[in-house]
Amino acid sequence: MHGRSNRGLLLTLIRNNCTLLSSTFTMLPCGPALSFVRCLVRKKNVSGESLEDSKLCRCLSTVDLIALGVGSTLGAGVYVLAGEVAKSDSGPSIVVSFLIAALASVMAGLCYAEFGARVPKTGSAYLYTYVTVGELWAFITGWNLILSYVIGTSSVARAWSGTFDELLGKQIGHFFSTYFKMNYSGLAEYPDFFAVFLILLLSGLLSFGVKESAWVNKIFTAINILVLLFVMISGFVKGDADNWKISEEYLINLTAITENCSSYENVTSIYGSGGFMPYGFTGTLAGAATCFYAFVGFDCIATTGEEVKNPQKAIPIGIVASLLVCFMAYFGVSAALTLMMPYYLLDEKSPLPVAFEYVGWGPAKYVVAVGSLCALSTSLLGSIFPMPRVIYAMAKDGLLFKCLAQISSKTKTPLVATLSSGAVAAIMAFLFDLKALVDMMSIGTLLAYSLVATCVLILRYQPSLTYEQPKYSPEKAALAASERESAVSESQINMIQENHFSLQALINPSSLPTEQTATTVNFLVGLLAFLVCGLSVLTTYGIHFIANLEPWSIGLLAVLVASFIVTILLIQRQPQNQQKVAFMVPLLPFLPSFSILVNIYLMVQLSGDTWIRFSFWMALGFLIYFAYGIRHSLEGHRSDGDDDSCSENSGLQEKNPVEEVDEPENANESDQFLAHERTSEC
């Protein structure tokens, strides 16, 4: 009895002290710095009822999504990349390079698939980051996605124009370079009118309606797949398995002849050691790093959340199926190419036409040309399609200019965002030399991949993932309030008894997720990102020290690797939320953790000039966000009139208990439309 009375007394004292502290702090004005930080980390709340609401036209099927993902991912790279990587890096083991790259891409794809099932709204990685991490990171993600799509659209349009010009004997390029030559640094050799026409044509098609665009995409994707099947069958019919078994002695003799050496002694082959892996496993891995970018593009499926029927199932199926189809295509084409022709003879710019000439099927190059143009067309559509949807999502949330969120009443498409983004991409394709900017695409894509994997890690360990709000009743409200009060009091007692934190709680946490375990996971995920950055920098810029077995480099590498493994195991020990959705990432936390490692490592590989250009783009983005977005964000202006929003003059004010009880009555009304969503507390 005495124990119970002491426990009750302790509960009462804690409750009274908490009430006093709460009253004291709520009377204090919200400091500008604290209010500013809260604005940066406020999260977007997506209610259960508003998930089904959309101003866009829900007309896409699962097949449309698969065709969109395949068309966007399986671009002209399949006709060029295989020859380039096989000749310089992998040899016949390029098929293994594509397998490794596909596995790395699938890790990112599965993370996108889970979020597509959880939050089937327009916005892709931008929305996923906004829901999980906060507004500033969401803006950074969206802003970089826009950059990736704009540069991608412009560069693919110029590639389409160049490929078509090749078929005509470069007559178009000769004409424009003669009469419209531009001799300025950073600008293209001549203005590409054909690329501008292509971009404006496809932008107009997308403005006309998403269903019509999907049909055009399916037709071009089907032609592309048929051409690739022709290439694969031809390769296996005309191929020679001996091209995968070339001896090192033969390559040494070939090198001596090529370099006019008088003697075969002390001659080192410039074509590797022969066999299936002529450049060793390191060459295969180097090829895999290049092949990884061949699988970029599936994320456009994640922007269709408000335009697809049954998005919770269609988006995961579309992402996984499109990656599988793309891997089979890359694997088959690269195998056929290296069987038809020895890897050291491959042409880096047009491997397939040269390979068909080698086996005596010269006219087949015209079939390849048709497939290449169709692949470029679907890749161009895949770059233009998601760009206005990300812009629309950001503008609808108030982070970009509101006029960009306008929806056409007839076509149900983001008309202003589509036309304006298409115009910007057309101007870039018209004037600029895009070769130096293409690497900037990689930063935006890899950053988005990393953040989505991070968000999956964080979200799965949260104590509550429920978006739906139950209907209000006084009895349920009173019971819930009592349970919350009891839970808070119990957790406060436990924190006092455990001195707020203990190693035992970290290794053997509770069986169900709590705020404490969620905070622990947040910290561990941040530590994991820091360790991954350290590992990537060390293995990129200190690889020669590691190769020379420098003690400090080996020790630092061992510490970073051990810390990385321990951090993953500690995250794995924490309890996961048991809420089920249509698709969930398997092997948590290992799969998202390795996805983060791969993506950050590839980001570190990019050149310093690319990062300098990227910083200028980010400076422009931050100017827009801090001058406009942070003030106009819907999450900072609650439609239901809450007093503690992060608006410009916000402060922490005490809530009336009566208002808290009355609030659920209007919850359903405010949750019916995404424009009137209830926002998270600042």
Q: What key phrases describe this protein's structure?
A:
disordered C terminus, mainly alpha, about 675 residues, 27 helices, about 0% strand
The overall average pLDDT, rounded, is: 80
Compute the separation of the termini in Å. Answer: 43 Å
* Rg, alpha carbons: 28 Å
Order of helices and strands: HHHHHHHHHHHHHHHHHHHHHHHHHHH
**SSE class:** mainly alpha
- Classify the beta-strand content into a percent band: under 5%
In short:
The chain is mostly helical and 682 residues long.
Overview of this protein structure:
This protein is mostly helical and 682 residues long. Helices cover 66% and strands 0% of the residues. It has 27 helices and no strands. α10 (210-238) runs antiparallel to α15. The model is unreliable at 16-30, 466-477, 479-499 and 643-682 (pLDDT under 50).
Topology overview:
Layout: H1 2-27, H2 32-41, H3 62-73, H4 77-90, H5 94-118, H6 124-132, H7 135-167, H8 171-179, H9 193-208, H10 210-238, H11 248-258, H12 280-291, H13 311-340, H14 351-358, H15 364-384, H16 386-396, H17 415-431, H18 438-460, H19 474-497, H20 503-507, H21 515-541, H22 543-547, H23 551-573, H24 590-604, H25 608-632, H26 657-662, H27 667-670
Helix pairs in contact: 1-19, 3-10, 3-13, 3-15, 4-12, 4-13, 5-12, 5-13, 5-18, 5-24, 6-7, 6-18, 7-9, 7-15, 7-16, 7-17, 7-18, 7-25, 9-17, 10-13, 10-15, 14-15, 16-17, 18-24, 21-23, 21-24
